[in-house]
Amino acid sequence: MASDESDGRDPLFRYDDPIFADERLLEITHLPGPDRIVGRDDQMLRVADALNPAIFGSKPSHLFIFGKTGTGKSLISRSITQRVITEAERDDINVKYAFIDCGEQNTEASIVKTVAQVVNEPERSGVTVPDRGLGTGDYYKRLWDVIDRCTDVTIVILDEIDMLEDDEVLRKLSRAGENRRISDSSIGIVGISNKIDFPDNLSERVKSSLSRDELVFPPYDANQLIDILNKRRDAFHEEVITDEVIPLTAALAAQEHGDARKAIDILRNAGRLAKKRNDARVTEEHVRAAKEKTEADRFSELIEGSPQQAKAILYALTLLTENSTEDEFPTKIIYSQYKQITGRLELDILSERRVQEILQEQNFLNVIQSEREGRGRGRGAHAKHRLLEDPEIVKKVLLRDSRLSMEE
Ligand SMILES: Nc1ncnc2c1ncn2[C@@H]1O[C@H](COP(=O)(O)OP(=O)(O)OP(=O)(O)O)[C@@H](O)[C@H]1O
């Protein structure tokens, strides 16, 4: 195709976006300014309180933040840290931070390496931090040098801290000053988790050595979600979203618990859908379709990479949920349903014990919830399991798998 000579642009591409004025405002990684943050004044004060000493170059308090998904835990930690950095700069205090997703990096060595790489300025420290090739002990050594030479205060934000393979890293980072690993600098840890019972699972060594503040973020109500979405309205061109779009999106996202991540994702997907269909305005219908897509995307992200056997086990639980008024099922019942499925699909049959372990892993990944009767959350053969997502959506995602699609 010839290029358009009138303005020199290649006519193969679209240069106008009829729906979005700035879609980036709806990206999950986008950090909104303080005036766009809604309903978190108390939590912001508490986080600010813990990090406050960093402004003067002193050691901040360690802090654990709990709350369900999409309640603003990462946002508030990043936003307040950013404000601490700006404030500290006025007095030439150098604060740096590393944000680590422990779902992706869960080993001691990879965390220490990443913090060192983020904080390091090689010309200042004279230290290099290679991607591979060093043992954990050597990475620690470099980290201490880098921290001492390149910062006054380092804030380490550990998102999904419950996914850590080994909590020794918390002990070493929190005691670095006392143990004289670092002398001119200090470290503050902010741990984020959606499991409120997470500290019970810390090793005794860490429990006793890591003094910290703790803070819980409650879910948003539908009105707060409306406010959050309204403050991102300028992601769209004026008049593009119809009146019912934001209240409906907020109501749908508040159904399970007030999840701002889901609300923003639905709004963005609704806009994308309108664009794809060449519709001039975003309507209620786009929002409803976007909700389903958003849930399916989230679910596929969660089970992405799960082996076929895990999918077959989830499929067994899905069929049980679909065909029963109950929503919780004991391992034994799931196992017998699973055996029928493996027969039909010609998959190997795992032992009941292994199936129990896989169910436990899925519990950890927040795909299902496992409870041991009468004794709270638990492992063991007596656990009952419940799907955390609408079975219709789970089924759709699972049937995308080549082998499981034979069940259609
Ligand atoms: N109070 C708020 N005001 C404005 N936007 C918000 C607010 N809370 C959350 N958001 C937005 O919602 C999305 C999800 O928030 P965030 O990632 O902070 O949640 P989270 O609690 O850390 O969730 P997860 O546990 O899933 O990581 C982000 O895009 C964030 O900007």
Describe, in short, the structure shown:
The protein has 408 residues and is an alpha/beta fold.
What does this structure look like?
The structure is a single chain. This protein is of the alpha/beta class and 408 residues long. It has 3 domains: 40-217, Rossmann fold; 221-302, Orthogonal Bundle (Helicase, Ruva Protein, domain 3), CATH 1.10.8; 305-407, Orthogonal Bundle (Arc Repressor Mutant, subunit A), CATH 1.10.10. The protein has helices spanning 41-51, 73-90, 108-119, 122-125, 136-150, 168-174, 204-209, 222-230, 245-254, 260-276, 284-303, 308-322, 331-345, 352-364, 391-398; strands spanning 62-67, 95-101, 153-159, 186-193, 212-217, 328-330, 368-372, 383-387. The protein has a 5-stranded parallel β-sheet with strand order 2-3-4-1-5, sandwiched between helices. The chain has a 3-stranded antiparallel β-sheet with strand order 6-8-7. Helix 6 links the parallel strand 3 and strand 4. Helix 11 (284-303) crosses helix 15 (391-398). It is globular. Bound molecules: adenosine-5'-triphosphate. Adenosine-5'-triphosphate binds next to helix 2 and helix 10.
CATH superfamily of the largest domain: P-loop containing nucleotide triphosphate hydrolases
For the sheet with most strands, the description reads: 5 strands, parallel
Q: What structural class should be given to the helix and strand makeup?
A: alpha/beta
In terms of per-residue confidence, which ranges show pLDDT below 50 for 5 or more consecutive residues?
none
Text of the CATH class of the largest domain: Alpha Beta
The set of bound ligands, ions and cofactors reads: adenosine-5'-triphosphate
**Extended strand count:** 8
**What's the CATH topology label of the largest domain?**
Rossmann fold
The sequence of SSEs as H and E is HEHEHHHEHEHEHHHHHEHHEEH
| Distance N to C terminus | 43 Å
**Mean pLDDT across all residues, rounded?**
90
Strand order of the largest sheet: 2-3-4-1-5
DSSP helix fraction: 40-55%
The global form is globular
Assembly type:
single chain
CATH architecture level-2 label of the largest domain: 3-Layer(aba) Sandwich
Radius of gyration: 24 Å
Note the total helix count. 15
